[in-house]
TrEMBL record:
Basic and acidic residues bias (residue ranges): 10-28
Residue spans of biased composition, Polar residues class: 383-402
Protein name stated in the entry: Uncharacterized protein
Region (Disordered): 1-36, 376-402
Species of origin: Triangularia verruculosa
Length: 402
């Protein structure tokens, strides 16, 4: 058994050149509430035309010094000769900034709040090897045959006697809301069931080491499952504290590997999928770190141990995804985090489809818990058998006897 060296880089650590400086971290956090830091836009391999991109363009234009106007040319009063030469010279007006004291008219349209999870955020994820499902991209896919079979298992809690037509009609009525908070309070508990799995939601993952350079926003899933902190050995928690412990709040579940993101009637389904991809990458990294804890070389087995779901109340659309980690494609490169669709259901179409979808979510939660518990047990066992741990315990015992 190889001894644990806490200074040894983890398999999921980004290369040294990809790690943000403290100054960059501070700037990224300070600007994420209104728009991303300038470094975010400078580092994108492709910039998409989104409201946030236009906001950054406006900011940069405002910061540019006003150009020195050229003296207008003097032209003859002979109209024919004047037009033959191309007309009035307006070059001195090029790039002339809008007056800073210009006032918006009362007819100006109201600016709609732009989501942080737009196409440029998706591009930023891809630039950091975090990928959404795409038929146009050749990507390693996990074997999901057994996963789909497990997702389809029938649940006694969703039998005809437990979830009848009246229960289905009640779900449809509660589903008719434009409030995401109402969906989370009234609809999601029906879908997820009442399993005794530690869960939490709407808490920013401020303790996690950034997967993308800390230039965007902290992950903050609507709902996530994890383990009780006390179930993880103290040494494992300390060694992987920025990989498996999402927040510094006491008693918040750790090592999360099931996530759910919900949208109301007017919510954006594409945004929900990007959020699920982002959160699922954090979960996949946590599972991979536990799986390879105290190992000399990381193992990339290509299996998915993290799952996510998105629910759009407006369409009744439930999507389930698997997330797995792939080995770096080049030496000293980053691991790849891949999102793959597993199943999809329309919960509002009929009771039978609704039961199948809700059963798949509950089965996914159970399967995620089995993966999580297995990796935690293995990591705990390796931590307790570590020579470093044994030596420390013996030294402490000798000190007490003395």
């Amino acid at each position: 058994m190889a001894s644990r060296n806490r200074k040894r880089p983890r398999a999921d650590d980004p290369p040294q050149e990809h790690r943000p400086s403290k100054k960059l971290r501070a700037e990224g956090r300070a600007q994420s509430s209104s728009n991303f830091a300038p470094e975010f836009w400078d580092n994108l391999s492709k910039v998409w035309l989104t409201p946030r991109a236009l906001r950054e363009l406006d900011r940069r234009n405002d910061a540019r010094p006003a150009p020195k106007p050229l003296a207008p040319a003097v032209h003859t009063a002979d109209l024919a000769r004047f037009t033959r030469r191309g007309g009035l010279d307006l070059r001195h007006l090029r790039e002339y900034p809008e007056p800073r004291d210009a006032k918006a008219t009362t007819m100006s349209p109201k600016v709609k709040k732009a989501s942080a999870y737009d196409k440029n955020f998706e591009q930023h994820l891809a630039d950091h090897d975090i990928y959404l499902p795409s038929p146009n991209r050749q990507a390693p896919r996990p074997n999901l045959d057994n996963t789909r079979l497990l997702f389809s298992a029938r649940r006694p809690s969703l039998s005809d006697s437990c979830f009848d037509d009246s229960a289905f009609e009640d779900l449809l009525q509660k589903n008719e809301t434009e409030s995401e908070g109402t969906v989370m309070r009234n609809v999601i508990p029906i879908i997820t069931g009442n399993a005794s799995i530690p869960n939490e939601g709407s808490l920013p993952f401020t303790n996690f080491e950034s997967l993308t350079g800390d230039l965007t926003v902290n992950a903050a899933p609507d709902f996530f499952d994890g383990a009780l902190p006390g179930d993880v050995d103290k040494s494992v928690r300390e060694d992987l504290r920025q990989i498996i412990i999402p927040t510094t709040h006491a008693n918040v579940p750790v090592a999360p590997n099931f996530f759910l993101e919900a949208k109301a009637l007017t919510g954006n389904a594409a945004v929900a999928r990007r959020q699920a991809c982002y959160y699922g990458a954090h979960g996949a990294r946590a599972m991979h770190a536990l799986q390879n804890y105290d190992e000399e070389e990381p193992v990339y087995d290509g299996n998915a141990y993290t799952y996510s779901a998105t629910y759009h109340a407006g369409m009744g659309a439930l999507q389930l995804y698997a997330h797995h980690v792939a080995a770096p494609t080049e030496p000293e490169g980053r691991p790849g985090y891949h999102m793959t669709q597993v199943k999809a259901y329309s919960l509002t179409s009929d009771r039978e489809t609704c039961v199948q979808g809700m059963g798949a979510v509950r089965n996914a939660r159970d399967l995620a818990q089995r993966h999580r518990d297995e990796f935690i047990r293995s990591a705990n066992a390796r931590a307790r058998q570590s020579p470093n741990r044994t030596s420390s315990a013996q030294e402490a015992k000798s000190g007490q006897e003395a």
